[in-house]
Amino acid sequence: MAYTGTPLVLHHALHLPGTSPIPVGSSAWFAWLATASCFSYKPEASIYHLTMRKEKRRNTFYWYAYLKVDSKLHNAYVGLSPTLSAQRLEAVSAKLLRKLYSTLSPV
């Protein structure tokens, strides 16, 4: 579940309080990414929300995805802001979910 007030990307659109949805990949999306530090991402056909955070490494800002399940934190590199397309977000979320499912033990 996303934290209250955290911007949410759902169905390939950014949902901010009091505004209409912003399509991922649009010029408004990239303008928003320039000012944002984090957002929540809900992959298609998944029960999980990923947290995307912008972190400074080697004097450049990169985006990383985080998913916490059962007190275990999984993470993956997402990329620079200009590379954050809907396809890239889906690919990273699929990678993290595969990583998660490979660590789950059968019950």
In summary, what is this structure?
The chain has 107 residues and is α+β, with helices and mostly antiparallel strands.
Task: Explain the overall architecture.
The mean pLDDT is 88. The chain is built from two helices and seven strands; from the N terminus they run βββαββββα. The protein has one domain (8-103). β6 (60-69) and β7 (72-79) form a beta hairpin. The chain is an alpha+beta fold and 107 residues long. The protein has helices at residues 27-35, 86-103, and strands at 8-10, 13-15, 22-23, 38-42, 50-57, 60-69, 72-79. The protein has a seven-stranded mixed beta sheet with strand order 3-2-1-4-5-6-7, with helices on one face.
Low-confidence stretches: none
| Gyration radius, in Å | 14 Å
Distance between the termini: 24 Å
* Number of DSSP strand runs: 7
Widest sheet: strand order?
Answer: 3-2-1-4-5-6-7
Supply the number of structural domains. Answer: 1
Total count of helical runs of at least 4 residues:
2
The biggest beta sheet reads: 7 strands, mixed
Helix-strand category:
alpha+beta
Averaged pLDDT: 88
How would you sum up the global shape?
Answer: globular
**SSE string:** EEEHEEEEH
Q: Assess the beta-strand content as a share of residues.
A: 35-45%
Helix fraction by DSSP (H/I, runs of at least 4): 25-40%
